[in-house]
Amino acid sequence: MDDAVGEGPEPSGAPLPHPPNLARTAVRLLQSQMGRAGSAVPLPAFLRGTLAYTLRDLARDAFELLRRLDFLDADAAGPAARRVNIVGCSMGGMIAQHFVLDYGRHVNSLCLHATCADLVCPAARHLRTVVGVLTDKPPPPPCGGALYKAEVVDFKVRFFQALCGELPFSEDEFRRSMRGAVERCAYEGGLERQLHAIAADRDRTPLLRHAFNRAGGVPGDGHNRFPVLVLHGGADALLMPSCADHLACCCFHQAKLTILPRMGHYFPPCTFVTIADSILLNGEEGNDRVCRRARNPGDG
């Protein structure tokens, strides 16, 4: 396994300190900031337009970026062709679904983490908590500044505490990581565009089922040729565990489902090793499938 693509920051800017667990295993990590590109300052009103930057647009941009960086072969024919291991978390998982729908022949393995095939509303009691935190978000000042950045960090702490589930939330460690993220970019305008893209996307279930879980299909024709792993927190307040069950059972043929019982939508350090190992093992299974197909072209 050479490349793990995905696991970029959440739409609301969650820091992800766990990629070093993957990097220690000689996996190259590519964290895209496409969803926040150009977000250092607000766009002028006359440049904003009316069309959403869609999830499929993001998937297309991801493919082109990987191709231009020479991470994959445009042809993807034969066992020697370079393919990528796609990992998508939350909104990234939605983009990953579009990626495999459009560019599945370039995929070695797929891991969908804390995501869904269709936009669902959290349970009422969780929704009240999340909305309560979101309405407490600091308004952006005209010129930013240290005080605003500190307020953004405080907001992020409150937001992810509300999403962390039943596992310990290390506030000090989170603050340190988030300060670095806010120093890089404190402007939050990208979040609005990302939420617009999520809301505008349709239910992907029919497309996924037709491509990867069609009754009577054969690998490559209604079934996925690459292994699919679905990871989810059993205490996820934003996307219920039933979203993961739907992905694994209805959308992908023979997908593996792993529920981490007390984990929420935010994954703390105590889950890093489990998540990283799961991603790596799934990628290795993808390598094994490629080798089997090379020995026996009829083997899916």
UniProtKB/TrEMBL annotation:
<protein>
    <submittedName>
        <fullName>Esterase-like protein</fullName>
    </submittedName>
</protein>
<feature type="region of interest" description="Disordered">
    <location>
        <begin position="1"/>
        <end position="21"/>
    </location>
</feature>
<dbReference type="InterPro" id="IPR050471">
    <property type="entry name" value="AB_hydrolase"/>
</dbReference>
<dbReference type="InterPro" id="IPR029058">
    <property type="entry name" value="AB_hydrolase_fold"/>
</dbReference>
